[in-house]
């Protein structure tokens, strides 16, 4: 019969309190902002006169063809989405941070809402000019895409909800209709090469790109 020579050895019990003393300590804080590192996007929405408004966002996630956005209700994007439920998610790469930042102080709302005015926002009716970005016609929706953005997602709004616990923002659910990718990002039919895609990350109000690759998910396509 097989025997394990170590089966009857005595082991000292693990003292979890000792282990905890070796860990880095935490402190409870109340951060002024909680942008803990998410991709930046530029949201294209349709103005009343048929022109396109651009809004920098840093709150989004995607699963399949469903995307969820966090949008401030005092901005032009929210107003436009309620009136015309189409948009484009334009994803810039890390080299474009200065163009994104040029848009940061502007709003398409006129007059500028008081709360936004107090934060230093100014009205701008041509976000493409002020940012130096180039409009590009979409295929399935009316708002323009941004030519310089390596990834563009035309989408239709499915649902808008303002949560009771956070009434200054809206949760916007959208469905992807068309995805456009710069050819340099492609590694095959319908495949994005992660070695070529370097999204712009908003990290506690600072801009970052990706660092070195550490590994891959077991579900990563070979």
UniProtKB/TrEMBL annotation:
Cofactor (UniProt): FMN
UniProt domain Flavin reductase like: residue ranges: 36-210
Keyword ATP-binding: no
Entry annotated with the keyword Flavoprotein: yes
The organism's place on the tree of life at top rank: Bacteria
Keyword terms: Flavoprotein
Alphabetical list of Pfam families matching this protein: Flavin_Reduct
Family: Belongs to the flavoredoxin family.
Protein name in UniProt: Flavin reductase (DIM6/NTAB) family NADH-FMN oxidoreductase RutF
């Amino acid at each position: 019969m097989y025997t394990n020579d170590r089966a009857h050895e005595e082991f000292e019990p693990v003292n979890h309190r000792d282990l905890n003393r070796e860990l880095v300590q935490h402190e409870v804080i109340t951060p002024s902002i909680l942008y803990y590192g998410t991709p930046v996007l530029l949201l294209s929405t349709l103005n009343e006169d048929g022109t396109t408004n651009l809004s920098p966002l840093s709150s989004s996630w995607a699963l399949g063809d469903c995307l969820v956005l966090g949008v401030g209700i005092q901005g032009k994007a929210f107003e436009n989405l309620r009136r015309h439920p189409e948009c484009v998610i334009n994803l810039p790469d890390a080299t474009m941070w200065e163009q994104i930042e040029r848009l940061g102080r502007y709003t398409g709302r006129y007059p500028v809402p008081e709360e936004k005015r107090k934060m230093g926002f100014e009205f701008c009716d041509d976000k493409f000019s002020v940012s130096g970005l180039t409009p590009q016609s979409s295929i399935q929706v009316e708002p323009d895409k941004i030519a310089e953005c390596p990834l563009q997602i035309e989408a239709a709004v499915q649902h808008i909800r303002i949560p009771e616990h956070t009434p200054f923002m809206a949760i916007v659910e959208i469905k992807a209709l068309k995805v456009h990718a710069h050819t340099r990002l492609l590694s095959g039919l319908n495949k994005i090469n992660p070695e070529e895609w370097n999204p712009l990350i908003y990290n506690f109000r600072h801009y970052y790109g990706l660092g070195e690759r550490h590994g891959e998910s077991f579900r990563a396509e070979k």
